[in-house]
């Protein structure tokens, strides 16, 4: 062996706070007790909620009432505008728009000629 490896310590890697003499035991959980506690807790919550039910009354402000009124009015105008045109007129308008559009698959003319 060369002298470069002479000072290297051997053995297993130890982490900070790790005691090599300490033997850890696995903790077992009592599943039955946990389930019983959860069931008991859930029953208590259900009983509390049934005793203290609160009914909320939501009142709207003037601004909210006015906003909803304007929204309803705009919706009515939109529906009336859509009802003015027949299906045939809408199809004709769509076809006219499509004819005016440039076709994306056309080969662009580049350069002279």
TrEMBL record:
Region listing for Disordered, in residue ranges: 1-34
Keywords from the named record: Coiled coil
One Pfam short name: FAM32A
Cellular component GO terms held in the UniProt record: nucleolus
Coiled-coil annotated residue ranges, if any: 58-104
InterPro entries documented for this protein: FAM32A
PANTHER family xref list: PROTEIN FAM32A
UniProt name for this protein: DUF1754-domain-containing protein
Natural source organism: Diversispora epigaea
């Amino acid at each position: 062996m060369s002298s470069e490896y002479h000072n290297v310590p051997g053995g297993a890697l130890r982490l900070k706070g790790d005691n090599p003499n300490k033997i850890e035991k696995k903790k077992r959980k009592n599943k039955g007790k946990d389930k019983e506690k959860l069931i008991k807790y859930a029953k208590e919550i259900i009983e509390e909620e049934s005793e203290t039910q609160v009914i909320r009354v939501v009142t709207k402000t003037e601004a909210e009432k006015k906003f909803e009124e304007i929204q309803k009015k705009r919706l009515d105008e939109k529906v009336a505008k859509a009802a003015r045109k027949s299906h045939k007129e809408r199809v004709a308008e769509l076809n006219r728009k499509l004819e005016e559009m440039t076709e994306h698959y056309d080969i662009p003319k580049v350069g002279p000629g």
